[in-house]
DNA sequence: GATGAATGAGGTTTCATTCAT
DNA sequence: TATGAATGAAACCTCATTCAT
């Protein structure tokens, strides 16, 4: 393979990845809006101005599409969390930041939020991978959380449940958040973080 | 119509309502487990040891079934809330109780929790009614909440958002709650309530 | 279950089996004419004056249909062979009769012949069952054959290969046999048998 | 066109024919293994380490591919037969040789055998040409056959049918022949020929 | 010549719903 | 009331073929 053909191939690969990414983005949007089962492959292809058949160059099946949306979305959430984990902030601030960042992701990027509801619809073997990834997310969050409350005396149940309470409060946001509302995601994040962490402090 | 036939009809009505109720209960269970679209009418009828056709003596359509499940589930939640609202407890305790009761309902009764995810799948005119009912629920909750924190100075955004945070934390529970876990719904309720409104109480 | 409902159920079962049988018969005919893959479910349903969907009350899939055609056809061949095996004819005559009967089956009944070509198209797990059944057929034929030539000294390879030669000559018949031709299946059978085992008889 | 470009073109033509031949060979193999309809153009191109698109430089369509496979295979069979016909052997030996040669071709070369099953799948106008070629094959075989039994008194029906019996016995071989078996194609040929011609002699 | 991308027609299958018995 | 049978719309997916690069 000479230089030219290499470049050419590379170029095509990029085009391919771009398109695939674009497909997943739109698919996620439509799944979020209509629900996975109600959304048809034609809905997705129409939105992208391609034909149903073309879609199948980029994805293997409708379920594969949902699966990849999930993984991409979870990947985003995880990355946001890891950035925060690896930052130089003091533990309490890390938690604060983590909450805000997650809310930002969940409300703005990639319809992450709405997808959170649709794991059920994946075939088992895909579900397992999604759950594994979701667990990874929760593990990181729990780590940040634990460090933030290290000084306080809480039993294990308490810790885990409180963490879930926080995640629940956050993950529920897409159910009532509207992009047209008065508050920006970041503002909501600030207020939520204040409330959710404030609760912790009151216990100390 | 003589006495006898009247009674007979009445008896039939009861049988009818019983059966219908039983159908909805089972349907909800299956919708919760497989998702509305993946669940077939045959799944539902098999579970009830009847045939697909018979189902239609009791319900109008599959969507109607989901709709009624929703309404029944929301009705339960609302009733639990109203009982609390009308009780003689002090405001702070009412909120505490409301949270616990809602968690109990959501984790034990009628698969209420899982259904919360599936409003999307109803046709618009049904969705509206469900949303109206859900709003009713939230209004009552908000009322209890506001009375509980009356003495504190919070702006409107704060209040509503905090209420949503609480509801989110609760409504998310079915996503991680397992009936086989160590903690009972009531225990979870206690701990959640402590975390979510503990500070309020410490101040109150 | 009272008498009436029992009868009713029985009646329905019979109707069901009848219809299924009819479906398989027609399907086999169409598969034989157009080939399995070229034949569409619509072809089959049209021929039967039903809708595509109705077909699926009786069969699980297109492949299932082909599979059942195979089994039914093989069953016929085997039954014809067993009748001959269990008859009181002398061994030589049994073989003679077996050949004729098989030719009759293969040319007249149920398009057995044409199907013989299409095992390939079944998924592996079905193929195995068909092959098992086909082996059963060949075992019986071989038994009849061996008994017919017991007195002659032949090595094992010879015997098996000769049997296959005979089966091949027969199974190939549907490729050139035309129902409009001058000779009836039975006549063809007589002549074939004469040629294929004539020498044996002259010796016996 | 100067000398150089002429040679160049010639060279290209050869390359082209080579590639085409190779494509047909592989295609036939795959058609034989999976069946024409189950085999995809991608199966074929993968086997050849090219892309789907490239295939179309060499063949016009998938059906055209099957067609050419058929013609090539039949051509082989015919050539083998003609060689035998034109040889100096005595008539009886010619028939003997013809049978053996045909078995050799059918079991070793070019998957001829398996293709024999798939004429059905060609569009009518191609089918006709294949049938014409197949008839040519049968005519030559019949000629050899007739000369071999000239001295014997047989009616016309007898002759044709016996010839078909022989062809059937042979053409069925690929259904049970396995390249790993103990007997070589030639050995099988010898035994088959002995049996099939032996039968004839017994009638004389 | 070679290839990745695009197409679209056509196939199988599912399933909510209706209906005659 | 109950039910097996029938329906038909709609969905997903495949794949031979074409085309621009």
What features would you describe in this structure?
Chain A has 204 residues and is mainly α. Chain A contains ten helices and no strands. In chain A, helix 4 runs parallel beside helix 7 and helix 5 runs antiparallel to helix 10. The longest helix of chain A has 32 residues. The N and C termini of chain A lie far apart (65 Å). In chain A, 35% of the residues are buried. The interface between C and D is large, with 34 and 37 residues. The structure holds a DNA duplex (21 and 21 nucleotides).
Task: For this entry, give a set of tags.
Arc Repressor Mutant, subunit A; Tetracycline Repressor, domain 2; mainly alpha; 2 domains; DNA-binding; homotetramer; 10 helices; disordered N terminus; 204 residues
CATH class of the largest domain in chain A: Mainly Alpha
Count of individual domains of chain A: 2
C-alpha Rg of chain A (nearest Å): 20 Å
CATH level-4 homologous superfamily of the largest domain in chain A: Tetracycline Repressor, domain 2
From the structure provided, what is the oligomeric state, counting identical versus distinct chains? homotetramer
User: What is the CATH T-level topology of the largest domain in chain A?
Assistant: Tetracycline Repressor, domain 2
Mean residue pLDDT of chain A? 87
What fraction strand of chain A?
Answer: under 5%
The major β-sheet of chain A equals: none
CATH architectural grouping of the largest domain in chain A = Orthogonal Bundle
Count of alpha and pi helical runs of chain A: 10
What is the 3D form of chain A?
elongated
